[in-house]
Amino acid sequence: xxxxxxxxxxxxxxxxxxxxxxxxxxxxxxxxxxxxxxxxxxxxxxxxxxxxxxxxxxxxxxxxxxxxxxxxxxxxxxxxxxxxxxxxxxxxxxxxxxxxxxxxxxxxxxxxxxxxxxxxxxxxxxxxxxxxxxxxxxxxxxxxxxxxxxxxxxxxxxxxxxxxxxxxxxxxxxxxxxxxxxxxxxxxxxxxxxxxx
Length: 197
What we know:
Elements: H1 7-23, H2 29-36, H3 40-52, E1 56-57, E2 67-68, H4 93-122, H5 126-142, H6 147-168, H7 174-183, H8 187-190
């Protein structure tokens, strides 16, 4: 296996590592495309290039089969970089941690947005949806994301839920919507959610 990867390849490898650590399964190519704001064919080419260079293995035609082969300690800090921006800039430890936290926060928001969009398309009940929101955020807790960032994700989820409720009932208040949301969480789970307004 070659020992060097480009800045972009390093970022994709770091994303695959973080995603897999958070969710105990590798990302789909569509999630790579969404995070890096590239087209699905571009994400597929990124994956093929990583595979060709021996940085990952995968099973063609099998969803979520990517496995990284680079030791985690050799991966760069994941940056909150978009497709058109430069990535992999040298950073101090604090700057690197901040960039990584921003990238993880962005990943969390993308996944919350996707979960809300899925719920909107399939109209499943809040008694199923709210525990899913909670479970998604808990994956970031298990991955040792800082409590401040986890609370930020929880506040973001509260805002998303409030927006959805207001679309259905424009006269609903934030307080009433939060009461409704928390009624679907088990008692001990309610205490970890901050009031975000």
